[in-house]
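Retro notes (design track)

What went well: tokenization of the new backbones is finally stable.
What didn't: we kept losing track of which sequence belonged to which structure.
Fix going forward: every design gets posted as structure first, then sequence, in one message. First example under the new rule, 80 residues:
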């Protein structure tokens, strides 16, 4: 798995308030691949995704469906 969860203060706040996870991925990956990997790995449904390229790194902001809680996924990953 090439997803690296981001554990900054902002990322934790997004988990709690917006049901959104933040991952750092390889710059060559596209949204379809990342979405498929997240849905299969964590057994969740992704509502929407936004990407950001900053300092030669690519970040995905992944908003989960209301029935799937981001805090549960973050706990499994050891982020919280």
């Amino acid at each position: 798995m090439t997803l690296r969860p981001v554990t900054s203060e902002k990322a934790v706040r997004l988990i709690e308030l917006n049901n959104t996870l933040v991952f750092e991925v390889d710059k060559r990956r596209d949204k379809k691949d990342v979405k498929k990997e997240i849905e299969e790995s964590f057994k969740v449904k992704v509502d929407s995704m936004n990407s950001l390229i900053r300092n030669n790194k690519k970040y995905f902001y992944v908003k989960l469906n209301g029935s799937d809680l981001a805090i549960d996924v973050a706990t499994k990953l050891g982020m919280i």
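Added context from the reviewer: Residues 4-77 form a domain with the Alpha-Beta Plaits fold (CATH 3.30.70.330).
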